[in-house]
Write a structure and sequence with these properties.
Elements lengths: L3 H20 L9 H4 L6 E3 L4 E3 L8 H13 L3 H9 L7 H13 L3 H14 L4 H13 L3 H13 L6 H12 L6
Antiparallel strand pairs: 1-2
Helix pairs in contact: 3-4, 3-5, 4-5, 5-6, 5-7, 6-7, 7-8, 7-9, 8-9
Protein name: Tetratricopeptide repeat protein
Keywords: Signal
């Protein structure tokens, strides 16, 4: 019985741990070797212990996605776009979300909104895209649209998340986050 109880606990806890580790990509990324050491859009590979080109094929999509987020938050939009281009599934809602983020932060708000709508079409529960879209709506003078996205974030379980707090702050102040 003691052997099965720990195994059962692991089996039951595994989905929660995976969900916790993989789903809350709504907090700003922590700077890693990718932006501290690497240059010219290179991405740090823990496995190789070196900076390598995103297009090398040596990095999986999760590593590339982490680099995309890190580059985007550092304002290195060209490097973020290059890492996005190297991802295997260009229709993944994560890719579409960051294409929208890059477009919006580069001044193409309408283009950003198109990418955000595509991301929501792929995954209506993507809280991060809803927050970014809402922030873009605030910046474009559409607070009602932003409040709709805030309501969707809350409805979809995002109360208390960075996505909710960032959008609520943007609505309150009239300004989205500039990372």
């Amino acid at each position: 019985m003691f052997r099965t109880l720990p195994l059962a606990a692991l089996i039951l806890a595994a989905p929660i741990a995976v969900l916790a580790a993989g789903s809350d990509m709504t907090t700003p990324p922590v700077s890693t070797e990718t932006t501290r050491t690497c240059t010219d859009g290179m991405v740090w590979s823990d496995r190789k212990g070196a900076c390598i080109a995103p297009q090398s094929g040596a990095l999986d999509d999760d590593v590339l996605y982490g680099a995309v987020r890190e580059f985007a938050y550092a304002g290195q939009y060209g490097d973020a776009a290059a890492a996005l281009d190297a991802m295997s599934d260009q229709h993944d809602d994560r890719v579409l979300t960051y294409r929208g983020f890059i477009a919006r932060k580069s001044g193409d708000v309408a283009g950003g909104m198109q990418w955000y709508r595509a991301a929501l079409s792929a995954n209506p529960d993507n809280l991060l895209v809803r927050s970014y879209m809402g922030q873009g709506l605030v910046e474009s003078g559409d607070p009602a649209g932003a409040r709709d996205q805030l309501a969707e974030i809350r409805l979809r379980g995002g109360a208390g998340s960075w996505a909710e707090l960032a959008l609520a702050r943007a609505i309150r102040t009239g300004h989205g986050f500039s990372y």
